[in-house]
Task: inverse folding
């Protein structure tokens, strides 16, 4: 008993604790299913564009062709940054992590958004479109600034994924790259109440603004136990010289109890349903870019870890080789994840605003109580 109240044992990591109600997405960890607004991810991944998927997540229904085209055009029209934010990108230290820069840039965007402090529904929809458009641009512009290349404007005939690749690399995506980038962002768009989404909802529950909620979510996603794992995956794959050495490499990691990034999931007890789609594009893209060896190494890693530990790859694993094959540097992988996940974060923020209650859990106190206070003059040196 503490303060006359019955103590409850804390649930470490809040595992299994239901902290919110949502219609945005559903994860069935036992059967390996993922639903967006009731639709199976396998149907969505094969048949819907990223802009259609965002419309579904935000509006709760499938768009018509006219609605989808209009929404895509509206978002792409917002894919430009205030000159002051671009200048900030130029002033960041060249060794600063892109996620740190992205976090700061999103926060700074609030200073130039006319709706920043307005959390009314209409203002939130306007900010939602801007932020969804501006986050990919921040990443692309940062890369080009660091490479000493001119910044590019979006092509109105492209959607967000294709424009991101174009603005990052300076060359339009091939048909295969365009499909792969669309699917990558669709698969990463939302995943129920993960750490970054929960962070966004906690901030929104205080009735803080959307920019603040996204800034907090970016901080959570940056961690290697969340979105930061994909960069570590690619570093591991590039560190393995060939397929023949995979088994010994992984065995060495297991013997020294090193964490193998890109494997396991707090919710899924079987294969992550997103994996099969990214595995397919990893094979196709690595073959088309002349780096089939990297996909072969990735597949051997998967087989070795599954055989040795019974642990399946998650969305981070093959997203690494998919992005690498499209020319995205590994240090930007987590930022690309953020560009896609912003769709889900915004959906959850808007849902939180619509039926809000301040999220304020409690903790179990483990410190001392009733210690006698010692005045400064009586404390020993």
Result:
């Amino acid at each position: 008993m503490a303060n006359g109240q019955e103590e409850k044992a804390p649930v470490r990591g809040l595992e299994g604790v239901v902290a919110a109600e949502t219609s945005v997405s559903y994860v069935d960890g036992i059967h390996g299913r993922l639903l967006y607004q009731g639709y199976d991810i396998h149907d969505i991944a094969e048949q819907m564009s990223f802009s259609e998927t965002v419309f579904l997540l935000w509006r709760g229904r499938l768009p018509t062709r006219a609605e989808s085209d209009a929404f895509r055009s509206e978002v792409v029209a917002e894919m430009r940054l205030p000159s002051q934010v671009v200048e900030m990108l130029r002033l960041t230290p060249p060794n600063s992590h892109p996620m740190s820069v992205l976090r700061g840039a999103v926060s700074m965007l609030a200073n130039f958004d006319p709706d920043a402090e307005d959390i009314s529904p209409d203002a939130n929809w306007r900010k939602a479109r801007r932020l969804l458009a501006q986050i990919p641009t921040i990443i692309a512009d940062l890369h080009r600034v660091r490479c000493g290349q001119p910044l590019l404007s979006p092509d109105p005939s492209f959607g967000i994924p294709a424009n991101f690749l174009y603005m990052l690399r300076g060359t339009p995506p091939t048909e295969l790259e365009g499909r792969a980038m669309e699917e990558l962002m669709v698969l990463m768009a939302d995943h129920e109440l993960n750490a970054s989404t929960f962070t966004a909802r906690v901030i929104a529950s205080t009735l803080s603004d959307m920019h603040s909620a996204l800034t907090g979510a970016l901080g959570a996603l940056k961690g290697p136990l969340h979105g930061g794992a994909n960069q570590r995956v690619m570093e591991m794959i590039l560190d393995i010289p060939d397929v023949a050495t995979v088994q010994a490499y992984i065995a060495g990691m297991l013997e020294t109890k090193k964490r193998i990034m890109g494997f396991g999931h707090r919710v899924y007890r079987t294969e992550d349903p997103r994996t099969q789609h990214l595995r397919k594009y990893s094979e196709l893209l690595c073959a088309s870019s002349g780096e089939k060896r990297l996909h072969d190494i990735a597949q051997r890693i998967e087989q070795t870890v599954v055989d040795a530990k019974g642990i399946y790859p998650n969305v981070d694993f093959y997203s690494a080789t998919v992005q690498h094959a499209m020319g995205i540097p590994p240090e930007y992988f987590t930022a690309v994840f953020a560009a896609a996940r912003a769709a889900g974060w915004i959906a959850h923020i808007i849902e939180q605003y619509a039926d809000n209650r301040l999220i304020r859990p409690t903790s179990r106190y483990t410190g001392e109580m009733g210690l006698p206070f010692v005045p400064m003059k009586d404390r020993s040196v």
